[in-house]
Structures are given as C-alpha cells and as structure tokens.
Write a structure and sequence with these properties.
- The chain folds into three domains: 19-35 and 57-182, Phosphoenolpyruvate Carboxykinase, domain 1 (3-Layer(aba) Sandwich); 206-264 and 330-521, Phosphoenolpyruvate Carboxykinase, domain 3; 273-323, Beta Complex (Phosphoenolpyruvate Carboxykinase, domain 2).
- The protein is 26% helix and 24% strand.
- It has 13 helices and 28 strands.
- An eight-stranded mixed sheet has the order 1-6-7-8-10-9-4-5, sandwiched between helices. The protein has an eight-stranded mixed sheet with strand order 14-12-13-20-24-21-28-27.
- The longest helix has 20 residues, at 491-510.
- It starts with 18 loop residues before the first strand and ends with a helix.
Amino acid sequence: MATPDPMTEKQELTVTPKSVIFRPSAERLRELTAAMPSARHSEFDNFNVQTRVLSRSKKSTYVITDDPSQHSDQCITRAEGARVAAIQDEFIADCDMIVVDGYIGNDPEFRTPARLYMEVAHANIAAMQNLLYYPLDGSEGDDWAPELTVIYTPSVKMEGYPDDRLIAVDLEAGVTRVFNSDYFGESKKGGLRMWNERVFRKGGLALHAGLKEIPVEGGSKVGLIVGLSGTGKTTTTFTRQNGSGPVQDDFVAMMPDGRIHATENGCFAKTFALSSEDEPTIHKAVCRPESYLENVAMSEDGKIDFFDETYTQNGRAVIRMADIDGAIDARDIGKADFLLILNRNENIIPGVAKLDPAQAAAYFMLGETQGTSAGGKDEAGKFLRVPGTNPFFPLLHAMQGNRFLELMHSHPMEVYLMNTGRVGGPGGDERSCKVRIPHSSAIVKGIADGTIEWEVDPDFGYEVARMVPGIDPSDIGILQPRQLYAEQGRGEEYAQHVERIRAERREYLESYPGLKEEIFLGLGG
C-alpha cells in the first residue's frame, strides 16, 4: 500500500484509523482504485468496479433517535447507535483508511463542509465521492472541520439487521455510519440525507431534483425536475432544448426567497441503455478517463456494453460537471420558473399535465412512479408512492409536503406532472403508447417557450395538452389518455382507473397526519 499522506496536527478525526491517507489527489485515488482486485480497466481508460451490493439498502437504513415520532423512517435508539459505532471504531483502529474532504454546494454563503472516511480496500468509493464534492478552495485553515461526516466500512457486517447491513444516520451529530455495503450510493446519499435536514431547518426544502436553464426568446427559463432515480430525471436534465445547459443532476435546495442552491460537482448517472444518439451529453462524459463506472457490463478485453443486462441493469457512472458540455454554475442562474414532477407510469397519466398550487403540492406529496433497479429488487417494476419522490428526507414526510406548499406560495412557479413511461398499458400491451425521449424533450421545450395549448381534464381537474409542437398529432394518446381509451373502446376501463386512483390517493395522503387541508383539495373529485 502507498505511504499514508501527512496530516496537520490540528486536524482532529472522528475516528482513529491504523493509518490515514489524508485528502489524496484524484491521481492518487485512481492509483488506489487500480490496485483493487474488483477494478477492471475499461476501453475508456477508466475503471469499472463490480460490487456485491447493487443498490441502496433502504431496509437497512435507520435514524438514530430516542424520539421516533419525529421521523417517518425506521429508527434505532441512541444507545444502539453508540453500540454499533463502537464496533465500527474498533475495526477502524486496525484499518487503513482514506479521508476525503470537500463541500456539498459551491455557494460560499451556503455550502456545507463534508467528509468521507473509507477503507483503502474500497478506494473507488472515495474516488467517486471526491468527484462529487466541490473541492476545498485553499481558504481552509487548520481549524476546518466537517459539518457532515460519513464513516464507511464495507468490510464490517452488522448482524441482526437486514442482510447484516446497516446505515445508521445520526442527524444531531451529523454523522452517518455505513456497514457491509460496497455500493457507492450509500456514500453519496449518506451526506445528502443529512443535508436534507439542515436545509429544512433553514426554512428551505431539499429537492431530489435536476436543474437546467433553457434559452428562450428574450431571456431564459430555469426548470427543476423532481423524480425518483430511474424515472428519467437525469435524462430530462441533460437533454438539450434551445441549447439548454444542465446545472445540477440530483439534489438542490429551494429557499424561501426562490433561490436555488446546487449540491454536487458531478453526476451519478445510470448507464443501462445509454447511447450516444439519445443521450450524447451523458454518454460523452461517461466515456472519459476521469469517470468511474460501477456494475457496467464489460468483456475481458475492456469493451463496455451499456445494453447488456446479464449482470445488472443498475450500472452507474460518476462523471464530472466539468466534462458536461454547456454545464452552468448554479450561482449564475436566476430563480426557478417551472418545476416538473416526473411520474413513470403505464395507465392514465398524461405525457404532461399543468397543475395549480394545491394540485402541485398534492402530486409532489404523492410522488407516484414505477420503481426501478435503483431502489433494489423490492422496488423494481412495482408501483410506488414516495413523498416528494425523495426517499432521503429524514424527517416527517408531512413536513416535506407542507413546506413545499409554503414555498409555492412564497415563490410561485409553474408546476407540471410529466409521465416518462407509457399511456394505455404496460410494454407488452400493443394498445399502449410509449413516451419516448423526443416526446419528453418536445414537452419541456413547449413549457419553456410557452407554446403548449391546454384544456381542463374533466376527471382530475388539471390541464392536459391539446397540442405540443414537435409531437405528431397521431401521438395524441400520449397527451390525452381519456381520448386514447375512448377511441379503443376502453371507456369503462378508464373510468375504473379514475375511481380507483382517486380513492387510493386520498387514502395515501391521509396516512400522513398533519398534512395541510389545502393539499387534499389538489386531488380534485
């Protein structure tokens, strides 16, 4: 192993490793990754690591608290948190560790100092996190200290927890401890989950969202795109309309004055079915030496196949924003003009629907979509409801919905529901219509340009599109599911969907005590 880097004596560490490689350079992290037995050198001169764990471990994630009534997620006591911390600390005392420091966010007035501890044996995770942190800028003194810390030991099993795996989240201390997972997402989300709570306490709301700026006649429009992983959030963010530029891929903070703050200096992008034709911006960035791959199909000679699912469909890559053509700094944009709530569905959700503030809060809180491999085998392909499409909000979900409504009133913006799946049935149903990337891109462009023609849907009260420039009239079923079902003689089936969905939505929202009554009004009917 390489000689540990020297560390300033005044730097105090949360744990005491056998040795520390402190703030290694990107080049050194690449060397350490190359030494991993599971790291394979790809045709792009980057490294592809196959992991044991293929997705985030929701069932193994617990908030540390003695008052579980303040959290919608599962919890463990502070005594139990101390017990598992002692087990991890004992392991680390005989372990070689890497320490990576940086910031969540790049606005000097808002950024959050963050740190990752990672076993040297799993250096790729440290290298990937190093790309996502905004770097230290040189102004940090010896008294610099992280506000949020992730302590990560893939080699330590935690018996008694699901799959002998544990992600223990101490919001009060700002420390998340990860046991027995080698999936990079636990590092990335470990810091961002705690950051969610910090943003909320400052009067804002963390959104599981992409952010982009679209040039329009006379200026530009700034759009937020919220959605669960795998619903097309990254694709929608990076797809070009009018020469648009991406600002952020995964998490942003929306504050009461309408300002939007970024979080990450890169992107953790899904790679399954990634093509240079449909997603040229992401594809180009993934195929660079500086990027890191995780669980991507690869032949013995290093050839990458983004369409091969024999290993997993949950292949991922960490890419740098610096490698994204046209990327825009969040500090240079104005306030958000519109927000898209993505919903990968397959029945009667239109390609796009325009929402009033109450409807916006309702559909935000519903967080409806079809699960993907990003959420693990328990979510893939299943219909889900996740408040705010944000599985990482660590407080009560009713607080998230109420704060969203407050922000809609303090900073009004246009809000749209956008289906990125199908209309009229699942993929095997010949009567159904797939919402393709060009359809979604035309919708986003039409929203920014203000060229979509709308009419009120009689069943749900939101507005649906009569016409979207760039979408052929033969694809009208994508825009108006009611018409599609009627033309196919399926009117009764459509009516049954309406009745069932209305009842299920109200029941779901009622499961969150304390939700403001105005949000229920957004359900219509």
